[in-house]
Amino acid sequence: MTEELEQIKVALEATLNKRSRKKFRRLFLSLHGYEQSQVFAEFDVMQRKLIYTFLTPEELANVFDDTEEDPVEASKYLAEMPLPYVARLLGEMYTDNVVDILAEMSPIQRRKYLNLLRGDEAKQVRDLIHYEDETAGSLMTTEYIAVTDQQTIGSAMQQVKQEAQDAELITYIYVIDDQGILVGVLSVRDLITHQDDEKIADIMITRVLAVDVNEDQETIAEQVRDYNFVAIPVVNAAEKMVGIITVDDIIDVIDEESAEDYSRLAGVDTESISHNPFQTALKRLPWLITLLFLGMLTATLINHFEGLLSEVSVLAIFISLITGTAGNAGTQSLAVAVRRLATNNHLKIWRLILNEVATGIIIGVITGICVWIMVGLWKQNLLLGGVVGAAMASAIFVANLAGSLIPIGMEKLGVDPAVASGPFISTLSDLTSVLIYFNIAQYFLQMFVN
Amino acid sequence: MTEELEQIKVALEATLNKRSRKKFRRLFLSLHGYEQSQVFAEFDVMQRKLIYTFLTPEELANVFDDTEEDPVEASKYLAEMPLPYVARLLGEMYTDNVVDILAEMSPIQRRKYLNLLRGDEAKQVRDLIHYEDETAGSLMTTEYIAVTDQQTIGSAMQQVKQEAQDAELITYIYVIDDQGILVGVLSVRDLITHQDDEKIADIMITRVLAVDVNEDQETIAEQVRDYNFVAIPVVNAAEKMVGIITVDDIIDVIDEESAEDYSRLAGVDTESISHNPFQTALKRLPWLITLLFLGMLTATLINHFEGLLSEVSVLAIFISLITGTAGNAGTQSLAVAVRRLATNNHLKIWRLILNEVATGIIIGVITGICVWIMVGLWKQNLLLGGVVGAAMASAIFVANLAGSLIPIGMEKLGVDPAVASGPFISTLSDLTSVLIYFNIAQYFLQMFVN
């Protein structure tokens, strides 16, 4: 909360303590819906119960429409209200938000609230609640304005005037035929600037982009972003219009998807915040312990070379240098591959792989030469420098290639490539790097020592 | 490009080859602006020059308004057109997009194009071009609708009808006083549903959220997302309204900022795609080579313990296990801290640090015990297991703390905390882990062996 809002909250509390309905309403209703919901979340249960008597359900609907964040909190509030109040509140809210709240409830609770709704409203909610998470159906709302292509501008304008208060967005007016099939779209701008007697069919744009109700949310977000829409219509398999997805929900999708990618790269869910360190630890440990086993594999591999190590103990000095650098290179190529797979649908996979092979060779050779010189000068031993440099070059090449091949392979298997995390790739590259390093060392040292 | 669009492109090329102006126009103008710009980018210079004779500058303005992506490409196109054509094209485009293109040009080129614009248009562009990148000023456009609070709904509606075609967005009508100061806002919905003789001052919302022209784009994006706006007004230091930022530009900002965070976590720019492996390598090498020096520091540290290593060569087996696992824990806590700092403006820093300290202890102890048991059983040596386990626990604790302290420190210094990358934290933790491991090993082994 901003400081200004913090002060308003204190002032609102004062009006609640004084039971001053009028002053509370004047101040609270001057706030934006989002601010109302921020302040509302700070009140305790006694204060909230007072608010239910101060505000009409229609007024409180704004607060609930703009919360979105936490449907569990919202259903807690619902339980505090008298049932007729809830009925009017849910009836006033946008259907997509009602669905978000009800979807989190137990079936018994959900039935209780559905029974409160008017028949048509309950049906809309029931229709929406069955769509799978992260699809168009789960994001869309049914409060849109649709006219038929036979109407005139004047009659459409009349209809918009009547329906404007209920619609979530009136920027686009959708045109359907008598079967309910989406045939066109016009903007409220067209409505305002054209003459009353002009026909909708003559003005509408017929090339209208719509998404299928089962379409994945990430694809939809990309379309809305590319086309600069503020809403996109949703149709079912029969091309009938069933809803719209508004840009505010698209922004939430974009945020959600990028937070997901970020979390996966880090190997931890960065978004769910807990103030309990045991819970925090519990979220991070599974990946760490899983990778510990992979790390133990690397340890057994080094163990296998213990004879070599005890003979040439200087080799141990460069283990972490090689594994660390190769891991860094692998993380880089992993991130690039994940992003390119996510943003480019028609990517030529072979080109990506070939490019990474070439990049890996260049990076490996340059880094290897640097290491050769550094180690050679430091230890006054060009052979040792050469061994470490050659191992470094090969380890980087392998890690770099693995970093792009793993997400590509996952994509081919139909797994979201972002599950390949930075920690995974760097732990895996520890294994390959050690394998490469000791084999090269053994080979060269045998050659020169014997 | 989708397959459908690919086919349309082929059809359009056929009409161009036949010099069939009418057919080209019919097909091309049926496309959405974004599609037009996608197709347009595929044509060669001869085809483009033909298009300039087929389309009016006003029609081509759509293509340019929806490209956005690449101002350098756009200025290449401008150079191909006759100057009077450019003049009309730039005059028709939204000011923010003209600014994006002109900002990338040399001063001489820019002056040439500015001279083509009408006086008032050129002034608007000049005003906008001086705003710093990533601020409200650089994102806003000046094509918005503003009425005064003295007007009636009817007269405002008249004005909207006249200005609708030029405005980038008519969802919000802004209300200014005679000084140009922003005093209110109403929606086109209000305009449509209220009576013609009602006064704007009676209907408008006076609590209007605006951003300062120098405000950072990330903060603005958060506000627009939280408040579910489709546009936000921009005011200067004197509270005068100077422009609006539309939600499509906000989405680009959100994409840009999250790509930036992702790139930084990976230690590589994942967005700039090059098909030349030398260029790709050049982008990744600086971080790798920088971290190589940090890695060499770790190597010299291990070198310092060479005596211990040659005596107890079994110690080398667990170097990569400890450095790897601590690095993974550090990456996790880094990502969590970066995200929490980015999304939570009023965060209590001490609480975050204390939480990470506690989490680090829990994760360290649990992982340490696992390692103790695993190594103890494997090597049939509980002392060795204890040394490795204790080193693991301490190394994880330190890496975990560093992962959150480094971004917090950077935030305090005013540096964007996302510059702390995963590769950096894991390379740094290699150093601390090795330091901890060998010190613990030396201490215990001296104690028991002597």
Automatic annotation (TrEMBL), chains A, B:
Residue ranges crossing the lipid bilayer per the database entry: 285-302, 314-337, 357-375, 382-403, 423-445
InterPro entries xref list: CBS_dom (IPR000644), CBS_dom_sf (IPR046342), Mg_transptr_MgtE_intracell_dom (IPR006668), MgtE_N_sf (IPR038076), MgtE_transporter (IPR006669), SLC41_membr_dom (IPR006667), SLC41_membr_dom_sf (IPR036739)
GO cellular component annotations of the record: plasma membrane
One family name in Pfam for this protein: CBS
Record flagged with keyword DNA damage: no
Amino-acid biosynthesis found in the keyword field: no
SUPFAM superfamilies membership: CBS-domain pair (SSF54631), MgtE membrane domain-like (SSF161093), MgtE N-terminal domain-like (SSF158791)
Family: Belongs to the SLC41A transporter family.
UniProt-recorded name of the protein: Magnesium transporter MgtE
Organism from which the protein derives: Pediococcus parvulus
